[in-house]
Specification:
The chain is α+β, with helices and mostly antiparallel strands. It has one domain. The chain contains three helices and four strands. α1 packs antiparallel against α3.
Length: about 90
């Protein structure tokens, strides 16, 4: 069973950051979310363990989400760098 790591960057409005990160926390394949300002400066790195936060993930991340909301509400745009892992076993041709 092979795993494939990949990074996705999404540019969103600052006020949308908390809702988008909540959605990502609920995803089972997100390892880390990096929140960056428009100039590339990193505001937050939110490490997530695959499967470890299942169930109460959003509740456990509530303090981080509150800080994220306060930090990004006045920013026009931010970039979310989403680090994911995918199970690549169904794509193996061996």
């Amino acid at each position: 069973m092979a795993e494939k790591d990949w990074i996705q960057e999404v540019r969103i409005r600052g006020e949308e950051a908390v809702q988008r990160v909540k959605e990502l926390v609920r995803d089972g394949n997100v390892r880390k979310v990096v929140v960056k300002k428009e100039d590339g400066e990193i505001l937050f790195e939110i490490p997530l363990t695959v499967g470890a936060l299942a169930g109460g993930a959003v509740a456990l991340a509530a303090p981080l989400l509150a800080a994220l909301g306060a930090a990004t509400v006045f920013l026009a745009h931010i970039t979310l760098e989403i680090h994911r892992v995918d199970d690549d076993s169904e794509n193996d041709d061996s």
